[in-house]
Design a protein that fits this description.
Elements lengths: L6 H6 L9 E4 L4 E4 L6 E6 L2 E2 L7 E2 L8
Antiparallel strand pairs: 1-2, 2-3, 3-4, 3-5
Length: 66
């Protein structure tokens, strides 16, 4: 399901955790933080981005939990 967001809105949205820009993941209906250190994926539900850190999904490997 493709993410249908206004390009102007997308250009001003930033990750609430680190303030980096997003890339759109249409397959997963998510906005993914472009900062490799953060890399959280925020869901887009009914064309509304849910920019709550508690709702975000980790996309990077958990290297720190050894």
């Amino acid at each position: 399901m493709a993410v249908n967001l206004d390009p102007d809105l997308l250009s001003i949205l930033v990750c609430p955790k680190c303030r980096s820009e997003f890339r759109v993941d249409d397959e997963a209906s998510e906005l993914v933080c472009t900062n490799a250190g953060c890399a959280l994926a925020y869901p887009v539900r009914d064309d509304i981005p849910v920019l709550l850190i508690d709702e975000a999904r980790e996309t990077k490997e958990a290297d720190d939990h050894r």
